[in-house]
Amino acid sequence: MNAKQVIEDLEKRFPNEPAYIQAVSQVLGSIEDVYNEYPAFEKMNLIERLCIPDRVISFRVTWVDDRGNVQTNMGYRVQHNNVLGPYKGGIRFHESVNLGILKFLAFEQTFKNSLTTLPMGGAKGGSDFSPRGKSNAEVMRFCQAFMSELYRHIGPDEDVPAGDIGVGGREVAYMFGWYKKLTHQWSGVLTGKGLEFGGSLIRPEATGYGNVYFLQNMLSTRGIELAGKTVLVSGSGNVAQYTIEKCLELGAKVVTCSDSDGYIYDPDGITREKLDYIMELKNEERGRIREYAEKYGCKYVGGGAKPWTEKADIALPSATQNEINEEAAKALVANGVIAVSEGANMPTTPEAIKVFQDAKILYSPGKAANAGGVAVSGLEMSQNSERLSWTREEVDQMLHRIMNDIHDNCVKYGTEEDGYINYVKGANIAGFLKVAKAMMAQGIY
Ligand SMILES: NC(=O)C1=CN([C@@H]2O[C@H](COP(=O)(O)OP(=O)(O)OC[C@H]3O[C@@H](n4cnc5c(N)ncnc54)[C@H](O)[C@@H]3O)[C@@H](O)[C@H]2O)C=CC1
Ligand SMILES: O=C(O)CCC(=O)C(=O)O
């Protein structure tokens, strides 16, 4: 494989999908040498088959708003690769959603799911519908209309969606209810369900907790403790909330969080009580993070500003893709950051990654660090199949073990000659090898 050539070809075929090309470029850049050690891969044109999704489903979603107006949105499911298990990955509802973004997310998900050690393929779906500002009734009607199209393409052994940006417990429950209505079947077809109807304990917490467990592993390679460290978090949704919770439990101080309008900086740190307020504000009232600053009298920076210029030891981006650019990365390094671990998917631009790696700080990509969410989704699937529920402690222990295993794999494949652990390389090679070997074994199709 000549990675540069493959990427140029993909750019020509998919000229309007920059996020997808960005994700592919990062992986191919890491695996090129290892790939070329196996001439059989090239003979089977493995790389093209691995980069291009198995299937892309797209459909119109028509629903009626509270004023009786008929609305239309686009719906998609990208089923990227199922050699390791049923397609698995979240659903995103956000106005920015387009096919290129979902293709990048489904591509990443394939490697991430491979890293979890569980039998799951990679997929992602979503719509350009935004739940923001919509009533519960509107969200329910939209979810039902979306599922009316999607249900034909999913199933507990076929494709198991879950949440992502704009899709939390409320949306998963509406989609699950409608799937059941359409198919007359109760099955573990979605994960992230409510605890009363087959959801797993720790699934809401899993992505944030998992990222902090991974961070602890990274810090321990340098003999550093998380306790006492100051942390920047971005976002204030599911991943951010449970990242903050675990940091607090482990004695770190989180001083920022954000939404798409701006960020708050609380030099005293976000306490348990303040985090409860954020959870209520974001999950129930669906308000803006600016209200935190008004309530607690701390700094708020609007205009879509991001928290990366504030001084801290650690940064945990937990909002969205490309939220740390080169300038932000330089500011973080100049302020003495020692570790960056990604709760979000691809939040760091390629230029910014280079800044972190050149500075030899600890830096882990989302496909490794945020894999705890989908890992516990995999555990939810197992519990549904067994018709059993495991305890909080059992699931947390398994999550911990999975994050440790992912870290070990990154160290195994990513340690460079000078001892620096290149987590990007490690995660990409470890995730790739398993998928590639399974593809080779399963023949050409
Ligand atoms: N929910 C999960 O289990 C997993 C989520 N992720 C990733 O974590 C990130 C956050 O997802 P969730 O917390 O689940 O979503 P969420 O919808 O609960 O929260 C998203 C947060 O990001 C902010 N945000 C969204 N778009 C933004 C933008 N353009 N600029 C600034 N802020 C923006 C929102 O205001 C919100 O605070 C995403 O990248 C997602 O793909 C990754 C693994 C699993
Ligand atoms: O839990 C899942 O299946 C999806 C999680 C997800 O979308 C992600 O890892 O980015």
Radius of gyration: 21 Å
- Weakly predicted, low-confidence segments: none
| Distance between the first and last residues' Cα | 20 Å
Structural class designation: alpha/beta
From the spread of the alpha carbons, the general shape counts as globular
Give a quick account of the main beta sheet: strands, pairing sense, barrel closure: 7 strands, mixed
Q: Per CATH, which architecture of the largest domain?
A: 3-Layer(aba) Sandwich
Helix content percent band: 40-55%
CATH topology of the largest domain: Rossmann fold
Strand order of the largest sheet: 9-8-7-6-10-11-12
Mean pLDDT: 98
| Amount of beta strand | 5-15%
Along the chain, the helix and strand elements come as HHHHEEEHEHEHHEHEEHHEEHEHEHHHH
The CATH superfamily of the largest domain is Leucine Dehydrogenase, chain A, domain 1
Number of domains: 2
* Number of beta strands: 12
Helix tally equals 17
CATH class of the largest domain: Alpha Beta
Compose a concise summary of this entry.
By secondary structure, the chain is α/β, with parallel strands linked by helices. Helices cover 49% and strands 15% of the residues. The protein folds into 2 domains: 183 residues, Leucine Dehydrogenase, chain A, domain 1 (Rossmann fold), CATH 3.40.50; 160 residues, NAD(P)-binding Rossmann-like Domain (Rossmann fold, 3-Layer(aba) Sandwich).
Q: Any chance you could write out the topology, listing elements then pairs?
A:
Blueprint: H1 3-13, H2 18-36, H3 39-43, H4 46-51, E1 55-64, E2 70-81, E3 87-93, H5 99-115, E4 122-127, H6 136-150, E5 159-162, H7 169-183, H8 203-220, E6 230-233, H9 238-249, E7 253-259, E8 262-265, H10 272-285, H11 290-296, E9 299-301, E10 314-316, H12 326-334, E11 339-341, H13 350-358, E12 362-364, H14 366-369, H15 372-386, H16 392-414, H17 423-442
Helix pairs in contact: 1-2, 2-5, 2-17, 5-17, 6-7, 8-9, 8-15, 8-16, 9-10, 12-13, 15-16, 16-17
